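Help! Submission page says 'invalid entity' but I think these are all valid:
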Amino acid sequence: MLDFTEVLPYAWPLLIGAGMTLVVSGAAIVLGMAVGLLLSIGALTGHPVMRRLIAAYISFFRGTPLLVQLLISFYFLPALLGINVPPLVSAVGTLALNTSAFQAEIYRGGFLALPHGQFEAARMLGIGVWQARRRILIPQVMRLVLPPLTNEATSILKSSSLVSVVAVTELMRVSEQAVSITFRATEFYVTAALIYLVLTSLLAWIGKRFELQLARSV
Amino acid sequence: MSFDPSLYIQYGPALLNGFLYTVLSLALANPLAILVGLVIALLQSLSLPPLRWACRSYIHFIRGTPLLIQLFLLYYCGPTVGVRLDALTAGVLGLGANGGAYFAEIFRAGFESIPKGQVEAARMLGLTPWQVLTRVKLPQMLVLITPPSVNQVIIIVKETAILSILTVPELTKAAIRMVGETSAIIEPYVALAAAFWLLVEATSRLGRRLERRVARHL
Amino acid sequence: MTAAPAPIIRVEHLFKRFGALEVLRDVSLTVARSEVLCVIGPSGSGKSTLLRAIAFLEPYSTGRIYIEDTLLGFVEQNGKLVPDRPRNIDRTRRHLGMVFQQFNLWPHMTTLRNVSEALVLVKRIARGAAEETARTMLAKVGLADKADTYPSRLSGGQQQRVAIARALAMEPQVLLFDEPTSSLDPELVGEVLQVMKQLAAEGMTMIVVTHEMGFAAEVADRVLFMDAGAIVEHGPANQLFRTPHSERLKQFLQTWKERNLIGL
């Protein structure tokens, strides 16, 4: 018989797990954004060799499963580099690299959709290339790509559940641990699913607010 | 770090077995997902508010929670409702149910892209709803929905790796076993990453060819 | 007779090629201080390409362009021309300002910000002082009251005037105009030409690529007529329009007259 009261003693650990989910996803998204922007600029304006390297990078991270990437970085890299990498760091790092590849494609599309004249006008006024990118191009690209970006952020939030496999105690892992003790699989996994729903709905709401906010100032 | 190709001879059969399970999973999951997506999209298009609400809630749930949780719910919580699924069945059903929600959205956009006038003209000429669907709607939708559909198939191909967590003996699980038994790290993961990368590349290429074929008649 | 002062822009035997296609063929010209030079010609004649080459928005293939006696875009190395570094190009280019056919205002900034941004970023002027200058420039083009408006809420003519103010704020020696009124509805063309006439009267050096023959006839000191990438005829405005020499120019002016008479 289903008994959801069995979940209550675990409320606090579950909430902390949810917090960890947010921390892991948030860090990965932000890092991925910085790297993704640089990659997209490099892919559009860089040296042919750089462009090929970036294309290979994107091809790898988009062409292999995230789980495989997490396993590789968790088991493979410490042996390769010889240093002990905390699971949290390797998990966030891998997630960040993964999303950076997807975000790079999103930003690339955004840059291509911008009228080139904006950049030319900035250059004619003497504004430096990187300054023009930072002040003129990137703010506009962000407005353009907000919908697919919100999608990608939601995707990372959900994919963070996979880091439970590489020893990071976020929401998924806390649920699994609780189930292994209480054997109340349905109660805990349903609860976890509901918490995820709340988190993703929150993210969608934030995304929508951003869209409206930015649309208003144009 | 050393690379020992002889390990592949030793573990070739095991890896191949895992690869076949991967292919089996994606070969079953993709048609299922497309079917589920089509059914949901069609149900949604009927002007029955309760039905539309049910479909939208389903899609909202699937898109708002991680695939891993959905698989766990099917596999571990099935017994609660009297259904005991083995790992592969749960995995394929989970991937199909998950992919189905995304396909439903793709098909919905496709249906909405068809000008109403076309349907009205067809009905005036006496075509039955089924004929309108197969002769008028679907052929025109194909160009619009093929690229995102190919994308979704690639996503499902990569998601079969997650089935390893359910103990389905697919390629990721075989690679992990190989690591455990030989303490070699590079060989298994190189094979794993390469195999998935090949699967995704092959799907991409087929997808591009399909896109060209579909666009030929326009 | 005193020697003429050095021209502010010198173009010598300019060629621009896109692969096998020659878009500019052996173009040479000079522009004197405070001169208004209009470039006219049919579509595809290379007039915009010439202007963009002078602005170095695209590199030229062979030839030389000198801005204030400094070679633009290239450095001489062992007798060959080698592409110059962006920072040097910027420095040479600071004498120039450009007004584009598509205005190219930045939609996510107010008018005031559009005009003041380069002052802050490039000339490192404090934002307060920069905004003061910006307001003065906006007043000059008659848009002081639109300082806090976003470009999307302005008409085409207003946007182009803001674009002129933005270029003026940087105090260029030469203003380049690339078909400044071609994207405007006919009723809005006048307000932009008015600003341009005012600038010419104040002694601004201007190179204007335009289809507005009336403006060219009225305001230009010299006119260049281009066709198929080369300068076919050039000379003082009144001479060129009243007594064209080349067949091509006669034909061009005749077509223009007919089209505009029908328009009346």
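Support: the input was valid. A stray whitespace character was the problem, and the output above is from the cleaned input. The longest strand of chain C covers residues 21-31.
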